[in-house]
Amino acid sequence: MTDQPPYGDGPATGAPAEPERFPMYGPEFARAPQALYARMRAHGDLAPVEIAPGVPATLVLGYDAALEIMRDPDRFPRCSEVWEEEVGPECPVLPMMMTRPNALFTNGAVHARLRSVIVDSLERVDPAALREHVADAANTLIDRFAADGKADLIGQYARTLPLLVFNEMFGCPHAIGDKLVRGMSAIFDTVGAEEGNALLAEATLELVAHKREQPGADVTSWMMRHPAALDDFEMAHQLTLLVGAGTEPEQNLIANGILLLLSDDRFGGDLAGGSLPVEDALDEILWTDPPMASYGTTFPRQDIDFRGYRLPAHQPVLISYAAANTDPSRRVGDRKGNRAHLSFSGGPHTCPAKSHARLIASVAMETLLDRLPELDLAVPAADLEWRPGPFHRALTSLPVLFAVP
Predict the structure, then answer these.
(1) Are the C-beta atoms of residues 95 and 198 closer than 8 Å to each other?
(2) Beta strands, E only, 83-230
(3) pLDDT in tens, 253-286
(4) pTM for the whole structure
(5) What is the distance between the alpha carbons of residues 319 and 210, in angstroms, rounded to a whole number?
(6) Choices 1.10.3720.10, 3.10.450.320, 3.40.50.300, 3.30.43.20: CATH for 1-99+293-340
(7) CA-to-CA distance for 52 and 321, rounded, in angstroms?
(8) Dihedral sign from CA coordinates of 397, 401, 404, 405
């Protein structure tokens, strides 16, 4: 795209011509999203995009603009019913953006009730026990390929580890957990998303039924025993939210963190000599290359004039966490220990499990590097392939070589 007119140029009260839109669904965007964000910035804090062929949206690139939207759910609600009718059931991004009766898509008293169940139940997770579960799962997976001298750390490690941890935390049988992850992966990839959504719905109801019959000391059972008294339908939809947050993004956080350590001398250092700045690498990833690159979708109820831009009623507005975090108008300085990034969202919908997510990723990375200290990429970092899609920053594979312990 070249010679594009500024998006929202001129008075917001005018009727601007339909802008040319940046596609966020092809291999070019998957390969180098920051390059496209840089071109989008010619439009300012917001840019016109397509999130699937023929599906228009506005992408928020500015940090302050993103915060303003996330902190104002009354003006920028998550309700997508009108948009859903316009795009139809076959829209590939519909399962990722459709309104669900869970804490992510509700506001006010309903949101407070549903979120309290999630927050209160997650707070009962013992960090020491979680750390032990992650380390055990990591060692189990590493044992399977440690004698090979090579591995694909997506298929053999990062994809499976969050599932094992989720199963332990939520008391989920492996067969149900596998269905949950397969359904969610299809939704994120926007390929076979409708079928993936059906599989996900089936699996969450199976998990609810299983835990009603066999409760235990796990997050699902704690949610069921919460004073809010969620019914099976409500439980299934809260679990959908937690699966979505706890598996696919966690996989990408682990994998992208490992890639950074193996490809960037600022963080890798002498891995064999014990220089393992895992927390610093996680901070860098969450600032510059977050696993959820764009989401936090809102749907204005009516046309809105926002910072000089006209946002059409019921058209999706997505927050680009990746672009907002790297907003050139802000001088972040040293990112080590700086947690002011937006990668866990903001406002009333801030992720309630961000401490759990960091702990899981850090233990996964530390355990891998401790077990296989001479780990190295099997191909140049520039040759790695990324999964297409507007929402995630996800490697297709992460091939590595290492000395057999």
Answers:
(1) no
(2) 150-152
(3) 999 999 999 998 887 654 554 445 898 899 999 9
(4) 0.90
(5) 36
(6) 3.30.43.20
(7) 19
(8) negative
